[in-house]
Structure formats: structure tokens, C-alpha cells
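Class prep. Write one:
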Amino acid sequence: MANTVLLWIGSLLPILWGIAHLFPTGSIVRGFGSISDDNRRIITMEWIAEGLALIFIGSAALTATIVEPAARVSFALYWVCVVALNVLSIVSLFTGFRIRFLPFRLCPPIFTGSSILILLGMLL
């Protein structure tokens, strides 16, 4: 039972953070000031892509938890989610974590925390 709770929390964190990531896209892009249309589109695309990636990673882990958390394929899927979250955490650590704006600094702990919860949930 405790492992299922850990899996649910570890799955929901990236989903919620990904959804929260999508809402401020316009204001984030405007915050770059006067930039070319191409750069504006690239920043918009990348911002949306990270939000959707987080939603997908969390949804994959959540789906495995809902369907059959003890299945071999679920175990493999959890590992893929853990690795993906840690890769995003490392990228965020070297990029967004250096920005003074708090939400950017929260990404590495949220991604790593989610991966730890999923890892604990699948190993317990």
C-alpha cells in the first residue's frame, strides 16, 4: 500500500508541474523582451515541450501504477521515468537553477524528488 502511495505522488508531481509549466508560457516569452520572431517561437516551443514531457513522464508512471504496478513492463517503465526525470533534473540544475526566479530553481528538486518517490515505490 505504501509503495502505491509513493508511486501516485511521484507520478502526480511531474504531471502537475508540467501543467503549471504551460500556463505562464506567454509571460515567460514576453520576459525575454525584444527578440526575433524565430527566437520567440523557439522559446515557446521549448517551454511547451518541457511541460508536455513532464506530463507524459508522470502519466506513463501513473498509468503503470493504475493498470498493474507489479508487472514487469511497469517496472521497466518506472525505470525509464526515473532516468528521464533525472536527466531533466541535471539539465535544469545547469540551466534554470542558476536563475534567481524561484520556480526555475524548484525544477531540480521536484524532478529528483519525483524520481526518488517512483524508485522507492517500485522497490518497496
Q: What stands out?
A: Residues 2-123 form one domain. The two ends are 10 Å apart (CA to CA). The mean pLDDT is 93.
